[in-house]
Amino acid sequence: MFLDVLYVIGLTTLAGACIPLGGLLASVERISPNWLELEFRHFLIAFGGGILLGAVSVVLIPQGQESMGDSLWAIPTIIAGGLLFFAVERVLGLKRRESPQLMGVMLDFVPEATALGGLTVVSPKIALLMAVLIALQNLPEGFNAYRELSSLPGYTSRKTLAFMGCLVSAGPAAGLLGYFFLSEQPVILGAVMLVASGGILYLIFQDIAPQSRLERHWGPPLGAVAGYCLALFSHGLVTHF
Question: Does the predicted TM-score (pTM) go above 0.85?
Answer without folding.
Answer: no
